[in-house]
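Hi,

I'm pasting everything inline rather than attaching a file, because the server keeps stripping attachments. The sequence lines come first, and each chain or strand is labelled.
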Amino acid sequence: MNYFPDEVIEHVFGFITSHKERNAVSLVCKSWYKIERMSRQRVFIGNCYAISPEGVIARFPELKSLTLKGKPHFADFNLVPHDWGGILYPWIEAFAKSRVGLEELRLKRMVVSDESLELLSKSFVNFKALVLVSCEGFSTDGLAAVAANCRFLRELDLQENEVEDHRGHWISRFPESCTSLVSLNLACLKGEINLSALERLVARSPNLKSLRLSRAVPLDALQKILMRAPQLVDLGTGSFVHDPASDAYNKLKATILKCKSIKSLSGFLEVAPRCLSAIHPICHNLTSLNLSYAPGIHGNDLIKLIQHCRKLERLWILDCIGDKGLGIVASTCKELQELRVFPSDPYGVGNAAVTEEGLVAISAGCPKLHSLLYFCQQMTNAALITVAKNCSNFTRFRLCILDPIRPDPVTMQPLDEGFGAIVQSCKRLRRLSLSGLLTDRVFLYIGMYAEQLEMLSIAFAGDSDKGMLYVLNGCKKLRKLEIRDSPFGDTALLMDVGKYETMRSLWMSSCEVTLGGCKTLAKNRPMLNVEIINEDDQIDFSSDDRQKVGKMYLYRTLVGPRKDAPEFVWTL
Amino acid sequence: MQGGLCLVGVGGGGGGGKGGGSANESTVSKVEKDYDHHPAESDELELGLGLSLGGGKSKGSAWGECGRILTAKDFPSAVSGTKRAADSVSHEGGSPPSISQVVGWPPIRAYRMNSLVNQAKAPRSEEEKVGSEKEKSKDNLKKKICNGNKTNNMFNEKGHLGFVKVNIDGLPIGRKVDLNAHACYETLAQTLEEMFFSSTPTINSIGSGAEKKDSAAKTSKLLDGSSEFVLTYEDKEGDWMLVGDVPWGMFLCSVKRLRIMRTSEANGLGPIFQERNEKQKAKPV
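And the predicted assembly:
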């Protein structure tokens, strides 16, 4: 099969970076499998329980970069009990033991202890990048260990983690010799930061391109830091509050003018609206703007800002911008590719901040839009159909109507036709989240048209098992399916059990599946873990199989039932 | 209330689609047939996408059962079953209770939700002109979710939202209550009273009309010892304590779960309790 020496093939493989493609390549023949596995440096594991750390090391001994995901997605919304699992420590332990040359670690929804961070910092000499997203279980002590021991640290990126703050001067633990930082994201930290230590750290990091500060960093400190890092490309401010007439503020305005490279702006974790004009001068360069954590900025101030941002490709914003503001976005930001509109008042009643009008305007004005997350009060079929006509490029379409079973308020119909239009028009759609009043019909459409769909999120939708069956039968590329509060039961669950081995995972909570159904599914399926999360001892395992299961999470695996399952998790 | 979703209006279940006007029925079944046999030809099917919506009575009648306006009242009852998300339902006042009581809805990351809440209670930055609407919604937010005791909650073992189990003597199935939704003992006690003793229609009260009346008679403040029941909690050390003795923040840090105990069994729960007993005895009859 091989006409070339292995080294040549390996060299060619070096140009193949996507995980999917490398996986495909490794299936061609034994020789390619061997060459590929010995040369793979970046490994992506979408479910940390699908494989053991030892298994990963055995197959990819040369790995340098690991991405690991732990808890199921619905854990983000408190649907998964606290100590369900997703623990990092065994991975670090195994890698350390086998002397893996780990350089990068990216984690999502994992439980990361200070001990694991300490072990990490001491075990991998060339460790360069730590990215933690939506993780928990660690404190600033763990960060101190990383700062102190990872001598070549380039990236420390903490996104939306729950970090226990031990009011320590962990920033001071970066030694004077540490000058390699390229990216530092501290936005999620809640406690005080030693500002002068931070400033000195920035001053000795000439390669620093991305800096995101926490709320504890006030405006005057920001100004001093920016003076040291005019080369920044990505800036996240902390607190942005000051009297606009003050010296400090004027100094900041002058300093910002020097930061000609900033393309990405975020933060404003605390903001006085009149201070926003300080950033107007850099708006014309911005490709990414995240104001979704900036409280209480009036729609008009947002509009004034956005009008300067003609090059924007990504915008994350709160719904205070209103439909009118979205209209301005539509007419200004012609390069827009990704839009996320978050609710400023998730439980508010009748605060029609954004509606279908805003979305329609965006779809008409932004031809390059392909990724959407939109929280709104209401949506109509007509609007969705128009959006589908205007924008057929969607790869990610997530719509969240705050009242999850609200019909089209104009026609009082379910939103089946609207979503149907989206899936029919957007042939490259990979991710879809539904909301609003929906019947089995929407799933019929999804099964028929959403050929590229990989991830589907369903809540309070459907009428019968047919709905789920349409999806399972039709969406050939489905990898992740998560369903809550929908009337799908055993019939749908058991129709095609082989399907689940082609997927990463299935989550069903508050549906109609029974204990018996889950047991049947799990029988003779060594490649699947079927886990029941049994809070409050709701289920009596010994008795009635007809009991409904509150939460079921199943996933394919090579290593059988996990050994770290807590007592409320039963693997059938 | 058995049966799944019971989306009111769609409660006709699968019948909704079938029971409709004949024109529509045949369309649906045609679609299904074609889909089953010739998925590849689906492109040629015109499913009526893009055609008039709401126009045409036939369509209307097919969905007639779904056509009813769903109000907030429908929503909590649609989320049925004691095991379901509505476990943590706490009925507060008259404002629409629906959305805020469903666990995990809207689907916003807990981290973002927490920071929204912290913003709601944080002192407003200077000179911000806040319209009265924003004011109201912020207050609602404050009332309904976390409060100033957030920092304490960082260190408790219950996770981001302080859901703890609550059991009452005599009922095997417990409920859960979100401690973060309360700022003081009074609102917590009120919530629990409504949860366990309330006579308003709730999921638990189906078919228990007679019991309802009795429960109402028992209703009385759990905190002052004048009820047949008393509210207790298990703390970090495993001891059972009376609720109300320590400052709220301290309580949040140490509480693991709650139990509504019969007063007769709650003897010896602490000197305060003896005091209460005595006070009660001393009340003029």
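Chain A touches chain B through 89 residues (CB under 8 Å).

If the labels don't parse on your end, tell me and I'll reformat.
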